[in-house]
Amino acid sequence: MNRNSNGVHMQTYDSSLAGYFRQKLAQREAELGAVLRASDDLAGTAAEDGSGEVVDFKDMAEKQSQAVLNEAKAENAAHEFEQVLTARRRLENHGYGLCQRCGEPIDLRRLKAMPEAACCTACQAAHEQGAGS
Fold this sequence. Notes:
The protein is mainly α and about 130 residues long. Helices cover about 65% and strands about 5% of the residues. A hairpin with a 5-residue loop joins strand 1 and strand 2 (about 10).
């Protein structure tokens, strides 16, 4: 147990939890890999759909909207996939559970909710506020 910057006790990661987080990260990697493969399959199907049928504008707009949503979903999955791979490397290199910005321990509750988390809550909030400005 450690104290955070506000003096509040929090539970933090220790190496005895490595197996648990290794399993959680591997599971998430598999889930995201399935999303990315499905996205690739959808993109391939859409590229092959030169059936020559007459399509009305409503159908075209719906297909375009779905394609945009699928692309955004794939981009998010690819980004999270990279975060998971990076977290797995930190786990193997014994840097897991430490904030990549300030070096302080990340609250265990945050890691359990988001095993790929690279930053503590305070640093993540500061990053998001800076990006939103």
